[in-house]
Amino acid sequence: MSNARAFRETLGLFPTGVAIVTTCGTDGERIGATVSSFNSVSLDPPLILFSIARNTRAYAAWAAADHYAVNVLPERESELSTRFARSLSDKWEGLAPEAGRGGVPLLREALAWFECRHHARYDGGDHLILVGEVIAHTARSSTQGRPLVFFKGKYRKLDEDSPRPTPSGIEHLLHGW
Rounded distance, CA 78 to CA 151, Å? Predict the structure, then answer.
């Protein structure tokens, strides 16, 4: 097994949520990609980050994007996640996204949206790390479902019926805020 493959499998032991990031190119074309590299950075100012592979077809659009959105997917949207993970499919077929700030498409299927404006970009090796300032966020009702999770190379579901107790008073230690 190659070192890169072994590294990827080891990373796969850390479960992540699944999101679709969206933006528009300079020609107005809607652009989207599935990511699991999404996380919070700061509460004040509100910052998030995700990364885009440098070899993606829409890399130049992402590198120049002034606005973008992170659409957090519910577990029932694994097919949508797979569609946006592929580079040569018509990702937007049959979808009617809402227009967000800066004109970015917001997926109606999402559990939550984070609408962002560009804050910073960093070299991340074979990826570009995009840091966005959250200018609006929307959380759907909890009745909309649970988040889609990726673990060990497969989509997974949370077992909401078996929560683990968390000692009180340590939330700031677990989440860094």
Answer: 13
Using alpha carbons only, give the angle 11, 64, 148 rounded to the nearest 5 degrees.
Answer: 35
Residue-wise pLDDT for 53-88, tens only, equals: 999 999 999 999 999 999 999 999 999 999 999 887
| Beta carbons of 54 and 93 less than 8 angstroms apart | no
Per-residue H/E/C for 17-63: ECEEEEEECCCCCEEEEEECCCEEEEECCEEEEEEEECCCCCHHHHH
Q: What is the pTM assigned to this prediction?
A: 0.86
Average pLDDT value for residue range 106-128: 96
Give the Cα separation of 90 and 85 in Å (integer).
11
Q: Which domains does the chain have, with CATH numbers?
A: 3-175 (2.30.110.10)
pLDDT category, 23, cuts 50, 70, 90? very high
